Amino acid sequence: MTDAISFQLEAVSGKARAATLRTPHGELRTPFFMPVGTVAAVKGLTPAMLREAGSQIVLANTYHLAVRPGEKLVDAFGGVAKFMGWHGPTLTDSGGFQAFSLAKIRKMDDAGVRFQNHFDGAELFLTPESAVEIQQLLGADMFMILDECPPANSSREKVAEAVGRTTRWAKRCFDAWSNREKQALFGIVQGGLFEDLRAESAEQIGEIGFPGNAIGGVSVGEDPAEMDRIVAHTAPLLPETKPRYLMGVGRPQDMLRAISHGVDMFDCVMPTRHARHAQAFTSSGTINLKNNCHREDESPLDPQCDCYACRTVSRGYLRHLFNVKEMLGPIYLSIHNIRFYHHLMEQARAAIIANRYDAFLREKLSGLES
Question: How much is the pLDDT for 22?
Answer without folding.
Answer: 98
